[in-house]
TrEMBL record:
Feature: compositional bias, Low complexity: 445-509
Protein known as: Elongation of fatty acids protein
An annotated GO cellular component: endoplasmic reticulum membrane
Subcellular location field: Membrane
Enzyme Commission code(s) on record: 2.3.1.-
Membrane topology, as annotated: Multi-pass membrane protein
TM regions (residue ranges): 54-71, 91-111, 189-209, 221-245, 251-269, 281-301, 387-408
Lineage: Eukaryota, Fungi, Dikarya, Ascomycota, Pezizomycotina
A Gene Ontology molecular function term of the record: fatty acid elongase activity
Main location: membrane
Family indicated by similarity: Belongs to the ELO family.
Pfam families membership: ELO
Amino acid sequence: MAFSRVLLTLPSSLLFKFPPSSDPSTLPPPPAGSSLYAPPISIPTPLFGDVLDVRVPITIACVYAVTVLSLNSYNRSTGQKPWGISKWKSFFWFVVAHNIFLAVYSAWTFVGMLSALRRTVQNPTGNMGLAGTVDSLCKMHGIGGMGNAIVYEPESSAWVSESSSVLLGSAGTPDATDLGRLWNEGLAFYGWFFYLSKFYEVLDTLIILAKGKRSSTLQTYHHAGAMMCMWAGIRFMSPPIWMFVFVNSGIHALMYTYYTLTAFSVPIPQALKRSLTTMQIIQFVVGVFYATIHSFISYTIPVQVPISSSFASAASSVSSAVVSTTSASVADALKKYLLRAAGEEGLAENIAVDPSVHASLKSTGATQQFRTEYQTVSCIDTSGQTFAIWLNVLYLAPLTVLFCRFFIRSYMRMASGNVKKHGKVEKAGKDALKGVERMNGKADGATVNGNGHVNGNANRHANGHANGHANGHANGNANGNANGHANGHANGNANGKATNGKATNGKAH
C-alpha cells in the first residue's frame, strides 16, 4: 500500500537567484468577521502591500544606522554624559510605558500564533504521519489536510490547487476565507504587525543613547537585520517565518517584563537573567537549523489523477450499446465515433446514425474516473521563499556566535568568581540581548572584583585632590600605585570604593 514519505533532497538551482522573483504578490489576511478565527481587525489591502515595498525597510534601516553613528559620535564628544531629557521624570515613565507596551504586545502575538499553530499543524502521530505535519508547515495556502494545498508555480506564473475539491478565488489566487492553513489562520495578520514592530523597537537604542551610553555596532546590526528578515519572510510568504514571529514574540514578552521590573529596582535572580540569555541562544541555534532544513525537504502527497478512456474502450462501449440495432446501423455508429475519437469531427457529422443508437449511447455514456497517485513535492516553491530563508540564516549565524561568547564570558566566569573586564564583543552581545539597559541612574560598564563598589561610570575620573580613576589608579600628587592605595597627602574621595577586590573608602595610607 502506498503512503506519504518525507525525503531529504537537494534544492533546485532555479530557486537560488538574486534578486528573487517578485511573484507572487503577498496575499493580505482575511477581513475581520469573515470566518470564526478571522483577525479582530481588518488591514486595508493597499496599506498591507505598501509597507511591504522593499524600499520601506531599506530606508528605515539606513536612516537608523546613520542616526546611531551620529549620536554615538556626539556622546563621545560630551564625555558620555547623559542627556538632560534622561533626567526628567517623564522620561522614566516613558521608558516604563515603552517596556509595558512591548511586553503586552509580544504576549498578544505569542498567544495569537500559538492558537493558529494548534489549529493548523497536523499531529505526526495522525493518519498521514510525519508527512502530514511537514505538509501543514510547508504549504501556507489552501485548506487543511494532506494534498489540499494551493501552491504557486513559477513555471506557469499561476496559483495551482493540488486537489480538484479546493478551488481558487475569482482573482485566480487562494481564497482568503480558506481555513486550515497557517497564512489565513494567523500568520498573515500577526506576522505583518510583528514586521512593523521591528521599526518601533529602535526606540530601545535611542533610550540607550539618551542615557549617554554607546550603542554598539552589533546592536545596530541586530535591529536593522531584524527589519530586513521580517520583511523578506512576510513579503515572500516563506514558511519558516512563523518561528521568528512565534518564538521571538514569546521571548520578548519575558524580556520586556524583566526590563519593566528592573526599572522599578525589583531584584531579579541571576538564574533568571541567565535563563533569558540561554533562551536567546537556543532561539538562534534552532532558528538557523529549522530555516535551513526547509530548502532540503521534499515529501510525497496523494493526488487524484483523471483516467482517460482509451480508443479501444470507446469502441467497446459503442459496440455493446448498439447490439440491438441492424448491422448497418452498428457500422455507421462505430464509424462515426471512431472518427470523433480521431479528431475528425467534420467527417463524423456526415454519417447518419439511427436515433435509437444515439439514445442507447447516451444512456451508457462513460463517466470521468480518477485514481490516486503519490507525487513528490518540494517544501519550498519560489525563489522569494528561498531568499527569505537564507537571509535569516546569514543574519542569525553571527548573532549566535556572539551570544554564546557573551554567555560564557558573563555567566560562567561570574559563577567561578573570576569576573574580568568585558571586551567589546561581549558588550556588543550584551547590547544585542538587552536592547536597552533599564537600570536608571546606575553605572553601566563598571567592573568590580570582589566586594568593591563603584558609583558612576567606570571611565569617569574620581573627584578629589588625588584625581584617582575608578579603576584604582591614582594620579597627580597622590603617587598611587596600581592596587589603588594612595601614598601621599592628597587623599581625595573617589566617590565610591575602588580597589582591586578590597574597599578602602577613599582613605590614604
